[in-house]
Amino acid sequence: MYRYIAFDVETPNRYNNRMSAIGIAVIEQGEITEEFFSYVNPETRFDTFNTQLTGIDENTVKDAPTFPQLWRRIEPLMSSGILAAHNAVFDMGVLKHCLRDYGIPWKATAKYCCTVQMGRRLVPGMSHSLNVMCDHYGIHLNHHQADSDSRACAEILLRYFAAGAQERDFIRTYRLI
After folding, report:
1. Do the Cβ atoms of 87 and 60 come closer than 8 Å?
2. Of the candidates 152, 153, 149, the residue with the CA atom closest to the CA atom of residue 10
3. Which of 13, 33, 139, 166 is 20 to 30 Å from the Cα of 154, by its Cα?
4. CATH of 4-175, one of 1.10.287.110, 3.30.420.10, 3.30.9.10, 1.10.3720.10
5. Degrees, nearest 5: CA angle 25-162-95
6. What are 53-101's pLDDT values in tens digits?
7. Distance in angstroms (rounded) separating the CA atoms of residues 64 and 29
8. Which H/E stretch holds residue 36?
């Protein structure tokens, strides 16, 4: 089994080009072996909708690291495996915007898998929203909290593999540059 870096980001506004929080859950040898969470100072304004959804506002992140400060800490982790996210296009897009907008070089492409796309093939005929999938599998979820969402993504991914999903069938490449 590959090493997976399941991650989830929360955003401060509708532009989805900055993070206000990130959660990471590492999967190795079929189990979650490490978790990380941080608020992120997005250096931009918050929309009321996003604050109501996540509970994160300017006060929450005022002493949090900016993305460039945080990236120095999490880049080795993010580079250490295949990225995974629930609705990965969203989370990968936010990551791409942050890297680009802050002028942070990383890599041109990243291998990833999406638990929404996997679920549509493996468990058809139902909603694949994170809360529905967590209810289906009996996974605890504090929705729209990056640490809980990233752990839930990792647990769903493990359920898919335990049910026989073949890794090679779901790994994609995301262009970051």
Report:
1. no
2. 149
3. 13
4. 3.30.420.10
5. 30
6. 999 999 999 999 999 999 999 999 999 999 999 999 999 999 999 999 9
7. 32
8. strand 31-39
